Amino acid sequence: MNASTNHRTGTAVSVTGLRKAYSKKVVLDGVDLTIGEGEVFALLGPNGAGKTTIVRILSTLIPADAGTATVMGYDLRGEAGAVRGVIGVTGQFSAVDNLLTGEENLALMGRLLHLRATDRRARTTELLERFDLVDAARQTPATYSGGMTRRLDIAMTLMGRPRLIFLDEPTTGLDPLSRQTMWRIIRELVREGVTILLTTQYLEEADHLAGRIAMLDHGRIVAQGTPDELKRRIPGAHIRLRFADAAALAAAGRALPEGTRDDEELVLRVRNEGGIRSLRDVLARLGDDVAVEDLSIHTPDLDDVFFAVTGKASKEKN
Amino acid sequence: MGAVTIAAQDSITMLGREIKHSLRLVRLLIVSAILVPVVMLLLFDYILGGTIGHGLGDAARGAPYVDFLVPGILMMAIAGGCGPTAINVTVDMTGGFIDRIRAMAVTRGALLAGHVGGSVLRTLVATAAVTGVALLVGFRPKATVADWFAVVGIVAAFSFALAWLSAAIGLVTKTVAGANGSTLPLSFLLPFLSSTFVPAGSMPAGVRWFAANQPFTAVVDSLRALLTGAPIGNTAYLALAWCAAIALVSYLWAQATFRRGAR
């Protein structure tokens, strides 16, 4: 049921040709994904890209129209019950029982997971402490802040020690402090060996947390890889040199003819593909005679990638 | 553990949750499930009862109107449980909680079973309280101990049937207001179009046949016969048959809707 390893395959999720449409509207248009065990995988995309639909299909909530998927070695269609036994889901909307106290919510999960009474109580106490909910344990979520409710939500998901956790937009609507807390919680889970599939519309969040990212747009994966791989895929990594006057800029332009000059700002941009080595090369070619006023290295962020692969800006960069 | 044991355990867990919910909302339930029928009892007995009682004729069997009325008020208390049950189901189905339950290895029918069980328990408490008030205002039942058991059985059976129907309604409605509105015919209209307050035979020809043959009348008539010592005939069997039919159809409807809920 929990951390047993009888189905260990090294692959947590394997998806081929996933399709889903609502009447005429295509939501998923042939999605392929592979997520390794212990990995944090982020689905990144704007609202309506299909992120939540993928999570709902993989967590057995809705059937796909076409395609195959295995989750922790179990076939999603034929072994939905087994899948449910090894996953945990925290959806976009709060899934706590608002009439039960925090403690009762956790105990309810323990009962539904058929934990023995002693285990249930021990696990409840442990999770209340871990998620800083001890003082609020005997209050209903009506008195909680958004961050507290989200923490209770995650704690309920963890009650059964799932090996794979789906987090659908775990930080949407949270204040910056609660977001930091949520990031810390996710990193702790990763250290424990849990596999995480998270969705987010925040590029910064995917960059920060995920080992691999799939960018989703209109139901298709438009780019996939580690954050660094994705960033390398697009041009834009450059060294930006600013000079004190036009004469220095002209001299630099002669030394580095491949650079792009901006005469108004007295800036020269030179492509930077090889990191430190190309930086050293640029400085060597510039020599000692040209005085550089300011130097900065610009690395493209995932915003640039998203723009490059979809031709439009991702929304709501925070 | 066997599948049946797990199903029973999950259903009991969900019933426990529903009982906790009811206790958290106990003041609301006292008003809606007990106070409303009690007010109707007082209104019909003290304000309208004189005239209605005179008009009853043979149907009153020489007893005061309150004896004829109380079985009808018990029916109002049973039917009054429909709204809260449908609302509770709708609230569960429209929040994020149901997705959590669906994504867990929890017996599929357990959640609805908890709602239905909770609904029956609430109705038993409410009807017991209403009966207590009725005794205080002069209701003098002639039921034997065996009759009382039969009364409890029929109340539980009809409440069980209406709870499944309400659960199904709660599953198809999308909002709390919709759930409340859709159960009004059950909690209000059908009791009035039955022998709850006056005998069906006294109604205008157009509704008389419907009132005489609809399930609420069978249930009220059987309760009335048991409580007042009137000849019961086959009304108790008829009432139980209606309960079984309504429960079965509603159960199948609710299960099908619950499964279809995952689109």
Main beta-sheet annotation of chain A: 6 strands, mixed
Number-wise, the strands of chain B total 0
How does the major sheet of chain B shape up? none
Rg estimate of chain B, integer Å? 19 Å
Tell me the number of helical segments of chain A per DSSP (H or I, 4 or more residues long).
Answer: 11
Roughly how much helix do the residues of chain A carry, as a percent range?
Answer: 25-40%
Q: How far do the termini of chain B sit from each other? A: 31 Å
Mean pLDDT of chain A: 87
The gross shape of chain A turns out to be elongated
> In total, how many beta strands of chain A?
14
Oligomer: heterodimer
Q: Shape of chain B, please?
A: elongated
Distance between the termini of chain A: 39 Å
Q: Into which percent range does the helicity of residues of chain B fall?
A: over 70%
Number of domains of chain A: 2
Order of helices and strands of chain B: HHHHHHHHHHH
Strand order of the largest sheet of chain A: 6-7-8-3-9-10
The pair of chains with the biggest contact is: A-B, 32 and 24 residues
In the CATH scheme, the class of the largest domain in chain A would be Alpha Beta
CATH homologous superfamily caption of the largest domain in chain A: P-loop containing nucleotide triphosphate hydrolases
